[in-house]
Amino acid sequence: MSDSDGSDILRIVDNKNIFNLETLVSDLERNHGKGKVSFVQRKSAAVIAIKTDNLVELEEVYRQMGFMVSEQGER
Predict the structure, then answer these.
(1) What architecture is the 8-72 domain classified under in CATH?
(2) pLDDT at 26 over 80
(3) Euclidean distance between CA atoms 13 and 17, whole angstroms
(4) 72: helix, coil or strand?
(5) What are 71's strand-pairing partners?
């Protein structure tokens, strides 16, 4: 999914409850994103979508932390 301004959406899935993702996303979004975050908590997983212009950089940060990451949209 790509926004009209050219920003892409990064989806992060935590099914291991590794971190408090709400806090983590808030911190990273403030540094890397554009102020658009959606956070969904399900029984065994949390799914987060972040609108960002820094897709590659942010994707690598989450991958190194052990999260499943997928890109929505094309650059």
Answers:
(1) 2-Layer Sandwich (3.30)
(2) no
(3) 10
(4) strand
(5) 10
